[in-house]
Each structure stands twice: as C-alpha cells, then as structure tokens.
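Q: I'm a student working through a structural biology exercise. My instructor gave each of us a protein and asked us to get a predicted structure, then write a short paragraph describing it. Mine is PUB domain-containing protein. I'm not confident about reading structure output yet, so if you can add a plain explanation after the tokens, that would really help. Here is the sequence I was given:
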Amino acid sequence: MERERGFTDDDAKVKRAFQTLLTYVGNVVRNPAEEKFRKIRLSNQSFHERVGALQGGIEFLELCGFEKIEGGEFLLIPRDKVDMAVLNSAGAELDSAIKNPFFGVL
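A: Happy to help. First, here is the predicted structure for PUB domain-containing protein. I'll explain a few features afterward.
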C-alpha cells in the first residue's frame, strides 16, 4: 500500500527502527556509565516492535558492542567495552540514513 511521497508501511517501520536505534546509541554515548542506557530487555514490547522484529536490528546493536546476556534476555554493552568511535560512527550513519531525502524511494 503506497502512501504519499512513495513511502510504504515497511519504509515507515525501517525509519522508526533507525530512529529507535539512534536513540539507544545516543543514550550510551551521552551516559556511558549508566547501565540503564547500556542494557536493553529483548522482550520489551516497544523494542521488539520497533527493532527486534526487523531483520538486522539486533545484529546492528551487536556490531555497536551490545552482547546478549542472561540467557539472551538482555542486550548489554559492558562499561569497559563502550567504544565511543564505533558508537559515534553508528549514530552518524543512522542520522544520515534518516535524513536522506531519498529514504524509501530507492
């Protein structure tokens, strides 16, 4: 089902996933010592709907340094493994994709 400007529902879901991932990454960059920003419950309904249900969402977070812990119930970046260069680069890529005027067109 097409909507205005060529966006489809799938494009909207991907854009929302990118925005959510950018929030997670940005929170860790701004608050690296705060565990609440470095830990994500995979069963959280909002996380699952926005990121977990989309192919590559969890893998993206793993590339940013998140690791599955407690039997796969959570994703966590250990404090000593927070890599600001990786997180800043990931954030910049997400931001660029979100702001791309051709998002959803190509």
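A: Here are two points you could use in your paragraph. DSSP finds five helices and three strands in the chain. The CA atoms of residues 64 and 89 lie 9 Å apart. It's a good idea to check both against the output above yourself.
Q: Great, thank you!
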